[in-house]
Amino acid sequence: MSMAGDLKLALVVSDSRKAQEGATALKASHSWVKPADADVLVVVGGDGFLLHTLHEMLDWDRVKPCYGLNLGTVGFLMNGHHAGQDIGALVAAAHRVAVHPLEMHVTTQDDRELCYHAINEVSLLRETRQTAKIEILINGKVRMEELAGDGILVATPAGSTAYNLSANGPILPLGSRMLALTPISPFRPRRWRGAIIPESAEIEFRIHEPEKRPVAAVADQKEVREIKSVRILASAEKELTLLFEPGFSLEERIFAEQFQV
To answer: Quick one: which of 60, 101, 197, 227 is 20 to 30 A from 235 by CA?
Structure first.
């Protein structure tokens, strides 16, 4: 699906020197508006800066479509940047991809209740040399009494090619409405390689011996240390939109990753 009409665009640029220098010509090539007044944000930088921008919008509850221009490192979630491009035409012709973030509800050892969103993944990681021991529940039912290892993560389709893939988790096609549940360096059960579960499921992790075996929970870039339990579910209210140039969609990149050797 492409976008049409006269769109008001705002330019959001990373503080990195590469992004700032690359955006110089872009600033003069279009009549930009303030982010609050824009229909679309053009985000210049890398994947990390795009995720930061998306999280800020979730926090402010002012979610707008984002068209990323890669002036970072990997740029998996970004479009290519080439001097002389007509940015207005590119955005107008872009394809929309809906991304559903996860909600991470954490209870700490001192009984604080915190909630953060994750676009790529929620990961639980041991804080010390002590192995983490984690109980896994799906929709209130215990599915694994104890996973011992470095931790575990829950990845969205958009994030399944990031940390999840590095941890030998499965790549999930966009639109699958599934989540990857992937152990990180599991010790027991040694042969468990994780699971693929519906996006509609509620996942809960309970930490065994949390004082002796402290565990941190990370929602993309937000970390909470010394946790007692974590509840994860796909957000029913908030949907993010990423824009991609025709023929260079996120879905195509996810397919391509599955045939890398």
So the answer is: 227
